[in-house]
Amino acid sequence: MRAGEAEINAAAEKAAAAFAAAGFPKMPARALMALVSSEDGSLTAAELAERLGVSAAAVSGAVRYLQTVGFVHRVSQPGSRRDLYALYDDEWYVVSMRKSPIYQSLAALTDATAEALPAGSAARSRVTEMGSFYRFLAARMPALLDDWEHQRAGGSRGVPSGEVLTGEVQAGEVLSKGGAA
């Protein structure tokens, strides 16, 4: 292991654990963070297995999931039977969120569930609220991604690393640490 690699792997594993705690599947989270923290943003299945200390089958399932959600793609290497699993060039996370109809799909599924529940029931009310939340996210996601792209390009909308937002955010405003807009 190269100097500093253990620290990088430990930090990536800690980030992956946070992703998993937030609901992202554990192995795909570990594979994603291994790829993100690799110098080239790409690794072979064997390199992923070695870095993560897991089986080829575990890597296969993880990269299949990451391909499905649009975070990585497989790249053939001329003259080799080994493919690389690579992050998309630049802004892969933004592209994946713009292309993903996940919130609309979740809203439609929760709406169908609500329709199956008795009118006026507490369960129907909870499920209806869940659908409303997903529609809210779907409606707000484009503006949020625009704000991120603006910040990434050197604009001023955003929160510096390490700071946490408090209070409410209104259409593009970001509140300071102290809570004043």
Task: Summarize the structure in words.
The protein is mainly alpha-helical. It is built from seven helices and three strands, in the order H-H-E-H-H-E-E-H-H-H. The protein has helices spanning 5-21, 26-37, 45-52, 56-68, 92-99, 102-116, 122-152, and strands at residues 42-44, 72-75, 84-87. The radius of gyration is 20 Å and the shape is globular.
From the N-terminal CA to the C-terminal CA, the straight-line distance is 47 Å
Instruction: Tell me the helix content.
Output: 55-70%
Secondary structure tally: strands: 3
Give me the strand/helix succession: HHEHHEEHHH
**Biggest pleated sheet:** 3 strands, antiparallel
The assigned structural class equals mainly alpha
C-alpha Rg (nearest Å): 20 Å
Summed up, the helix count is: 7
* Low-pLDDT residue spans: 167-181
**What portion of residues belong to β-strands?**
5-15%
**How confident overall, as mean pLDDT?**
82
Spatial ordering of strands, largest sheet: 1-3-2
Overall shape: it is: globular
Q: Which helices and strands occur, and which strands form pairs?
A:
Layout lengths: L4 H17 L4 H12 L4 E3 H8 L3 H13 L3 E4 L8 E4 L4 H8 L2 H15 L5 H31 L29
Antiparallel strand pairs: 1-3, 2-3
Helix pairs in contact: 1-2, 2-4, 3-4, 6-7
Give a brief description.
The chain has 181 residues and is mainly α.
